[in-house]
Design goal:
This protein is of the alpha/beta class. Helices cover 44% and strands 16% of the residues. The protein has helices at residues 18-29, 44-53, 69-82, 102-111, 129-145, 163-171, 181-191, 218-236, 240-251; strands at 6-12, 33-38, 58-63, 87-90, 116-123, 159-162, 196-203.
Length: 261
């Protein structure tokens, strides 16, 4: 059932016509759906605005210049908080994330509203092995940075976030605006005490013939991730006592007090 406190938020940058199919699939699964067009130059802003003109459940926000995925998400989150939404499901515009799983993710969020609901990707045979194997490094580092905080996959952007805590985290830091958004958001929310719930989600890597678009650049974005993990490891050090205490309480929860007679 639709939930007036939860919305789907899709950042989009030069995704091509494929974004229309993604949006239509998301709209078939949820109401409302918001798209933040992040300074696109491929004409998709006009396509999406035309779509929204005939669909009251779709809202399109057009940013004048590209600020990165995290920047686009933050723009949408601030507006969502202003209008009273408490949770937002983020998904990519390129068709990798299955809209058919939106309802299950939202239901998990309703069951655990204090948590971030993280998709754990199940890759098909078409997935580039360099990408599949390479993410193990980031996932291992995220586990280290949170002392096993339960983040199943730190790079997969199909998630439900509690809006308030994520906006608070992002407004305190100048980073998390580009490809570093997904992993840093998960780690910093874990530091804040937001629990993680992981759900398996199939992921597709579309070919160019299918309309697949990738803006990942191995050199640039791997440097960005390296810098991100460096500052997160440094940020973990002063938090070690709190993280160790939280881990100890998770393994050995306090005993309930005996009832008085």
């Amino acid at each position: 059932m639709p939930d007036p406190s939860r919305l789907v938020l899709i950042p989009s940058y030069n995704t091509g016509p494929r974004v229309l199919q993604t949006v239509r699939e998301a709209r078939a699964a949820w109401d409302p759906v918001w798209v933040v067009v992040d300074g696109s130059t491929d004409g998709t802003d006009a396509l999406l605005l035309a779509e929204a003109a005939t669909d009251p459940g779709l809202e399109v926000m057009v940013l004048p210049r590209n600020g990165g995925k995290g920047g686009a998400v933050l723009h949408g989150l601030r507006e969502a908080a202003r209008r009273g939404f408490t949770h937002a499901l983020t998904m990519d515009a390129d068709g990798q994330h299955p809209a058919s799983r939106i309802a299950a993710m939202m239901e998990a969020s309703r069951t655990a509203p204090e948590a971030m609901i993280l998709g754990r990707p199940v890759f098909g045979p078409e997935a580039p092995q360099l990408r599949v194997q390479g993410r193990r490094i980031s996932n291992g580092l995220a586990s280290l940075q949170t002392l096993g905080g339960g983040i199943g996959d730190c790079l997969f952007g199909f998630r439900v976030y509690p809006v308030g805590p994520l906006v608070a985290v992002m407004e305190r830091h100048r980073w998390m605006r580009r490809f570093d958004f997904d992993p840093e958001a998960a780690v910093r929310l874990a530091w804040r005490g937001v629990p993680a719930v992981n759900l398996p989600v199939p992921v597709r890597y579309l070919s160019a013939e299918e309309g697949g678009v990738s803006h990942f650049h191995y050199a640039r974005d791997n440097l960005l991730l390296t810098w991100m993990h460096t500052r997160l490891v440094l940020g973990m050090l002063p938090r070690l006592p709190a993280l160790l205490w939280r881990r100890r309480r998770a393994v050995h929860p306090p005993l309930a007090a005996a009832p008085r007679r």
